[in-house]
TrEMBL record:
GO molecular function: calcium ion binding; potassium channel regulator activity
BP GO terms, sorted: regulation of potassium ion transmembrane transport
UniProt xrefs under InterPro entries: EF-hand-dom_pair, EF_Hand_1_Ca_BS, EF_hand_dom, Recoverin
Domain of life: Eukaryota
CDD domains: EFh
Protein encoded by which gene: KCNIP2
Organism: Oncorhynchus tshawytscha
Lineage: Eukaryota, Metazoa, Chordata, Craniata, Vertebrata
Protein name, entry field: EF-hand domain-containing protein
Domain EF-hand per the UniProt entry, residue ranges: 70-105, 106-141, 154-189
């Protein structure tokens, strides 16, 4: 049975049909059950009746989870990680594929996804500048009430520690190989990976 939704656009009724073959494909591509996919789809369509979400809407939805801080920059980075087709839109398929990795993926899949998130210009390397931008956006999002005594240089310290552990050949950038190897060998990093489960 296909899920059919009536959408009002510019005063005209149009039918958006989510075909079962799409659902079957997502069942194979993700680690969600048919029921979970239907529930996720209903929620997605409720927030985004057109079936896709643009960056501004994504930021607006995301900000509701972090009212104590400014989540706009982190939401921008997250949107770019979900927008796999780089067309300025996140479809339901994009969304559940990413969500499946974040929530149900193997350690390697989660780490690959995190690397892609941190690699802001998608050139296959994480630079100190990129990691600083990410860490600053996370501190901004958490807000001063979460970290009342947080020093301004906290993101920089976090980045310095990250590079000390990750940048094995000390060339100033972290590759996916360095990232995977360092994370999988370091218990603290593996535990800290789970801290991001709540952020995403």
């Amino acid at each position: 049975v296909s899920i059919t939704t009536i959408v009002v656009e510019d005063g005209e009724l149009s039918t958006v049909c989510y075909r079962p073959e799409g659902l079957d494909q997502l069942l194979q591509q993700t680690k969600f059950t048919r029921r979970e996919l239907q529930i996720l789809y209903r929620g997605f369509k409720n927030e985004c009746p057109s079936g896709v979400v643009d960056e501004e809407t994504f930021k607006l939805i995301y900000s509701q989870f972090f009212p104590q801080g400014d989540s706009s920059t982190y939401a921008h980075f997250l949107f770019e990680a979900f927008d796999t087709h780089k067309n300025g839109m996140v479809s339901f398929e994009d969304f559940v594929t990413g969500l499946s990795i974040i929530l149900r993926g193997s350690v390697t899949e989660k780490l690959n996804w995190a690397f892609n998130l941190y690699d802001l210009n998608k050139d296959g390397f994480i630079t100190k500048e990129e990691m600083t931008d990410i860490m600053s956006s996370i501190y901004d999002m958490m807000g001063t009430c979460t970290y009342p005594c947080m020093q301004n240089d906290a993101p920089k310290e976090h980045v310095d520690n990250f590079f000390q552990k990750m940048d094995k050949n000390k060339d100033g950038v972290v590759t996916i190989e360095e990232f995977l190897e360092s994370c999988q060998k370091d218990e603290n990093i593996m535990q800290s990976m789970h801290l991001f489960d709540n952020v995403i």
